């Protein structure tokens, strides 16, 4: 075909432009929609209002007649053997290619938030665990493996990462977020993007933007934030992932910002994303999001009007199936209500991406790998390492952990022997597999009980209660087991699900932050035996467990740590691994108070003008170890040019008798500014692994750009004046406060500013430590 001939201008845009000029309107529209062949309209779906949205009456042959933009979740809608799925997908692609005169295949997308969402694929820890690891390099390694498995299965686009910054822990999708700090979310999320994109899979940033700031933490509820919070808290992770990560797709959110739904927000999807940040990829709809402009938001009177709004705003592809961008858009074009130039604009972006993926190559083959391997030893090793790094030791005042060798251990609680306790709502067994119990989990998921017994620990087990069922029938057995043990480990927390089928996950929002069901009463009953209790929390959000934690011998927090999470927890409990996770979210002291993150201005903290004390029980960044570390910090200069760098050196030494990893955190404190600022905010961090007696020099090179904020008049500024860089073990535990002065004139910065602090970690020998 002429548009594929080598005699044509060699640039991708020239090829794409030639093809666009030759296509009919029907062929153009076909490239702007997806098709979800396996969508479940029974009401047990995996997208909001799926049962109401999937009965479109279109046949396969009708939809693909002029081509097809995307295939929606061929692996992620039902348990499919990978080899059979690959053959089926190849056959579908062959039909699509044969049906349209240009021979263009569909781009295939899948979910990949906690691993490739397919039956039999490795289930990795959820994003809150990524944040708890404070290890972007390991997250990038994980994403590269996820991407490789997807490409082997014929998938081109992954609907991850989630870059929403947690604002209210009651929100059910808190488990999908990386944490409550935009710098942590941005750096870890960008690492994920690099890994996925490096494997040849298009990363999709979601949910753009403000979705996590909904009123009262309710899913899809209106968002009431001002432009400064949007600019300084919500948008930076997305900007980082676009500019530094090279993400090639963005998914609009279901949110409405100040009354404007994201799917219809030209300022968000075009002015900021494209014109300001230079994004050149595709914007895809969150599932049914364009139609929701009519059915939920009420800003469109028909599907055609919804299509017109979304297309003009900058949404290029409708997912998951054909609704607004099909016949309704064609009719609106015929009436002159939509400029066909907007269709061509979206089409060029779609075809350019297909060209980048090789889908327009003359020799393209629909079969990627006849027998893709989705769960191998290397992937499980990465999942285990990430799970280990994400376990957070919250308290251990009397040294109850690690468990004493030979101790009689009672293991109780509803999550002690439940493989699903390790998985978030976007892990395939929890997301889809629960509807197909006859197929099994598809992967090996050792429980905490399995893993503890595998270490040789003497364990007796009693379930005690369910996560949500109010029955206390099992309390007596749990109490008896605790009384007969040297130590009692209690595993409680969440069950992930969708739309009310769990206690955490999409559509599973909470009214308060008490442990679900009667689990807190079970913990109290066991505490009352007098046996030392180790409280293990397996959750998708932080819960206020202050009174229970105060009486426990130790408290361990894990955020859905993936298929090897049980092993990681057993290793931490027995001391085979020293805990090194740090909290990516604060753990509140009060279950009923309005949740709030550590990013608070002075009046958002405890004060004499309110009877409510919002101080967290355990602050962002907190985490303990089985070894000890000493720090010595200094700034290399007191002056910091408003267009220059500050350098902070921290000498870290493992002063204990065990190997371990420490996480050095760097916070900015700006005491006087044009507008109120958070008391502290994270601007750098380093994970440092050291053997006993070893030292390392951590150097933070901090560009003044990272001090920037949205000033009084709406511009992003670097403001001269006194600041502190605080070297800290958490957002509330400073080790050294280094006073510096930003010198020079007030400086306005834009999207070209530097977004991150450079960190180097150099191991030191004993002589070098002496001289340091």
Low-confidence stretches: 5-9, 39-43
Number of strands: 27
> What is the CATH class of the largest domain?
Alpha Beta
Number of domains: 3
Average pLDDT, to the nearest integer?
Answer: 93
- Through-space gap between termini: 68 Å
Largest sheet: 7 strands, parallel
What CATH architecture of the largest domain would you give? Alpha-Beta Barrel
Residues in helix, %: 25-40%
Give me the Rg, rounded.
26 Å
CATH H-level homologous superfamily name of the largest domain = Glycoside hydrolase, family 3, N-terminal domain
Write the CATH fold name of the largest domain: TIM Barrel
Determine the structural class based on helices, strands and strand pairing. Answer: alpha/beta
Instruction: Indicate the proportion of strand residues.
Output: 15-25%
**Reading side by side through the largest sheet, how are the strands ordered?**
1-2-3-4-5-6-9
Count of helix runs: 23
- Overall 3D geometry? globular
GO molecular function, one term: alpha-L-arabinofuranosidase activity
Domain Fibronectin type III-like: 662-731
InterPro entries: BXL, Fn3-like, GH, Glyco_hydro_3_C, Glyco_hydro_3_C_sf, Glyco_hydro_3_N, Glyco_hydro_3_N_sf, Ig-like_fold
Organism: Cellulomonas xylanilytica
């Amino acid at each position: 075909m002429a548009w594929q001939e080598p005699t044509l201008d060699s640039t991708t845009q020239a090829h794409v432009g030639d093809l666009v000029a030759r296509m009919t309107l029907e062929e153009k529209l076909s490239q702007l929609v997806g098709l979800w062949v396996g969508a479940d309209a029974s009401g047990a779906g995996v997208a909001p209002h799926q049962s109401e949205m999937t009965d479109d009456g279109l046949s396969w042959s009708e939809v693909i007649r002029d081509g097809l933009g995307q295939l929606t979740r061929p692996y992620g809608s039902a348990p499919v053997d990978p080899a059979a799925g690959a053959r089926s997908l190849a056959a579908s692609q062959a039909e699509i290619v044969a049906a349209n005169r240009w021979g263009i295949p569909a781009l295939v997308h899948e979910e990949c938030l906690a691993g490739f969402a397919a039956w039999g694929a490795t289930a990795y820890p959820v994003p809150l665990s990524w944040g708890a690891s404070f290890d972007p390099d390991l997250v990038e390694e994980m994403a590269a493996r996820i991407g490789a498995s997807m490409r082997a299965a014929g998938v081109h686009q992954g609907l991850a990462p989630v870059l929403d910054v947690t604002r209210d822990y009651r929100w059910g999708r808190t488990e999908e977020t990386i944490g409550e700090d935009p710098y942590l979310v941005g750096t870890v999320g960008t690492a994920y993007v690099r890994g996925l994109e490096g494997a040849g899979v298009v990363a999709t940033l979601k949910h753009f933007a403000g979705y996590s700031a909904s009123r009262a933490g309710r899913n899809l509820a209106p968002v009431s934030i001002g432009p400064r919070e949007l600019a300084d808290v919500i948008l930076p992770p997305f900007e980082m992932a676009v500019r530094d990560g090279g993400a090639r797709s963005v998914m609009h959110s279901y949110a409405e910002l100040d009354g404007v739904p994201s799917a219809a927000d030209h300022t968000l999807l075009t002015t900021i994303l494209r014109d300001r940040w230079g994004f050149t990829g595709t914007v895809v709809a969150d599932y049914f999001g364009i139609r929701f402009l009519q059915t939920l938001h009420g800003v469109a009177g028909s599907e055609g009007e919804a299509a017109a709004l979304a297309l003009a705003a900058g949404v290029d592809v409708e997912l998951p199936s054909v609704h607004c961008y099909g016949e309704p858009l064609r009719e609106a074009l015929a009436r002159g209500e939509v400029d066909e130039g907007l269709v061509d604009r979206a089409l060029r972006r779609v075809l350019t991406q297909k060209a980048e993926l090789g889908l327009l190559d003359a020799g393209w083959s629909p079969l990627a790998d006849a027998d893709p391997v989705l769960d191998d030893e290397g992937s499980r090793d990465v999942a285990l390492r990430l799970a280990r790094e994400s376990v957070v030791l919250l308290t251990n005042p009397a040294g109850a952990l690690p468990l004493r060798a030979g101790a009689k251990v009672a293991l109780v609680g509803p999550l002690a022997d439940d493989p699903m306790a390790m998985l978030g709502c976007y892990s395939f067994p929890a997301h889809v597999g629960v509807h197909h119990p006859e197929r099994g989990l598809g992967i090996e998921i050792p429980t905490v009980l399995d893993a503890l017994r595998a270490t040789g620990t003497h364990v007796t087990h009693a379930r005690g209660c369910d996560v949500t069922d109010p029955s206390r029938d099992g309390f007596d057995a749990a109490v008896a087991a605790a009384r007969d043990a040297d130590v009692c480990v209690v595993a409680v927390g969440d069950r992930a699900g969708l739309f009310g089928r769990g206690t955490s996950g999409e559509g599973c929002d909470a009214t308060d932050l008490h442990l679900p069901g009667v689990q807190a009463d079970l913990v109290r009953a066991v505490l009352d035996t007098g046996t030392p209790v180790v409280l293990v929390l397996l959750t998708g959000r932080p819960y206020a467990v202050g009174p229970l934690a105060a009486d426990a011998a130790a408290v361990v927090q894990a955020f859905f740590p993936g298929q090897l999470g049980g092993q990681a927890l057993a290793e931490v409990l027995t001391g085979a691994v020293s805990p090194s996770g740090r909290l990516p979210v604060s753990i509140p002291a009060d279950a009923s108070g309005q949740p709030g993150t550590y990013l608070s201005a002075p009046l958002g903290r405890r004060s004499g003008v309110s009877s409510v004390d919002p101080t967290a029980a355990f602050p962002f960044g907190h985490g303990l170890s089985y070894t000890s570390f000493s720090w010595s910090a200094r700034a290399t200069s007191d002056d910091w040019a408003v267009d220059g760098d500050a350098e902070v050196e921290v000498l870290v030494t493992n002063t204990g008798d065990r190997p371990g990893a420490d996480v050095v955190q760097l916070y900015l404190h700006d005491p006087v500014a044009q507008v109120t600022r958070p008391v502290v905010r994270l601007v750098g961090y380093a994970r440092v692994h050291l053997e006993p007696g070893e030292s390392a020099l951590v150097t933070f090179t901090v560009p003044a750009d990272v001090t920037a904020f949205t000033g009084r008049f709406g511009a992003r500024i670097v403001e001269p004046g006194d600041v502190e860089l605080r070297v800290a073990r958490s957002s509330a535990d400073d080790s050294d406060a280094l006073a510096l002065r930003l010198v020079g004139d007030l400086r306005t910065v834009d999207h070209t500013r530097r977004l991150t602090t450079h960190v180097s970690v150099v191991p030191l020998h004993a002589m070098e430590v002496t001289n340091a």
